[in-house]
């Protein structure tokens, strides 16, 4: 699974250029995406936004019922994962 590039309003860059996917594991209609950011100290609002965007885009794919996002190597990874996975998916940034 390759992420579609998207311009971010904060940086004007493409988020896949500063986010690294480690694995994507589909099981039936459920997908778990493991990723890490280029910095373990990435500000939590950005890290959460990226996780939400990953989840939203994966859940838009045909056949995907639910996406669980797992952030790795971040200083508050568990808190970010909880926010990203428990909250309803909001509208896109764009």
Tags for this entry?
single chain; 94 residues; alpha+beta; globular; disordered N terminus
Q: Please count the helical segments.
A: 2
Instruction: Label the structural class.
Output: alpha+beta
Q: On the 0-100 scale, what is the average pLDDT?
A: 76
Query: How far apart are the first and last residues' alpha carbons, in Å?
Result: 22 Å
Strand order of the largest sheet: 1-2-3
The gross shape turns out to be: globular
Radius of gyration: 12 Å
* Share in helix: 25-40%
Uncertain parts: 1-18
E-strand count: 3
The succession of helices and strands, N to C, reads EEHEH
Largest sheet: 3 strands, mixed
Strand content: 25-35%
Would you write up a description of this structure?
By secondary structure, the protein is of the alpha+beta class. The chain has a domain at 29-86. 28% of the residues lie in helices and 26% in strands. It is built from 2 helices and 3 strands; from the N terminus they run E-E-H-E-H. The chain has helices at residues 44-59, 77-86, and strands at 19-27, 30-37, 66-72. It has a 3-stranded mixed sheet. Helix 1 crosses helix 2. It is globular and about 35 Å long. The model is unreliable at 1-18 (pLDDT under 50).
Outline the secondary-structure elements:
Elements: E1 19-27, E2 30-37, H1 44-59, E3 66-72, H2 77-86
Parallel strand pairs: 2-3
Antiparallel strand pairs: 1-2
Helix pairs in contact: 1-2
């Amino acid at each position: 699974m390759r992420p579609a590039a998207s311009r971010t309003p904060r940086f004007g860059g493409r988020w896949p250029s500063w986010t690294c996917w480690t694995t994507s594991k589909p099981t039936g209609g459920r997908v778990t995406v493991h990723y890490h950011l280029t910095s373990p100290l990435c500000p939590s609002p950005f890290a959460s936004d990226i996780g939400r965007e990953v989840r939203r885009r994966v859940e838009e794919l045909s056949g995907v019922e639910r996406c669980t996002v797992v952030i790795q190597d971040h200083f508050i990874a568990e808190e970010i994962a909880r926010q990203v996975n428990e909250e309803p998916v909001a509208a896109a940034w764009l």
